[in-house]
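Hi V.,

Quick status before I head out on leave. The structure for the redesign project is tokenized and pasted below; the design run finished overnight.
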């Protein structure tokens, strides 16, 4: 099963914790998106990240985002296990389900270790 490096795991946990502490939705989304990029190789973290995104979308009453997160929850773990996920994708509904995106430099460094 794919795993993430210890450094990527630490940053993932920091980003998820920062998302939960954030006082505004925009900041929370930013942290969840960064955590998503790191979580993609790991089925459990990837699924947990989409569950957190779904919870935020529901709190915001954003139907489009919530629907997108339900779809992503279904495919997250299998995609991670098979290594079929769009590298760098932020995980949001507005990002194409299979659209690769640039990885921020600090996260790219953690993913390559």
């Amino acid at each position: 099963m794919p795993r993430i490096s210890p450094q990527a795991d630490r940053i993932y946990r920091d980003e998820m914790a920062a998302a939960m502490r954030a006082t505004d939705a925009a900041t929370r989304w930013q942290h969840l998106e960064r955590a998503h990029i790191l979580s993609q190789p790991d089925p459990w973290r990837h699924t947990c990240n989409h569950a957190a995104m779904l919870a935020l979308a529901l709190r915001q009453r954003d139907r489009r985002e919530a629907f997108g997160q339900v779809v992503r929850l279904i495919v997250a773990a299998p995609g991670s296990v098979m290594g079929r996920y769009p590298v760098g994708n932020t995980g949001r509904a507005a990002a194409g389900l299979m659209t690769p995106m640039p990885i921020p430099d600090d996260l790219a460094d953690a993913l390559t270790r």
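Above is the designed sequence. The radius of gyration is 13 Å.

G. will cover questions while I'm gone.

Best,
W.
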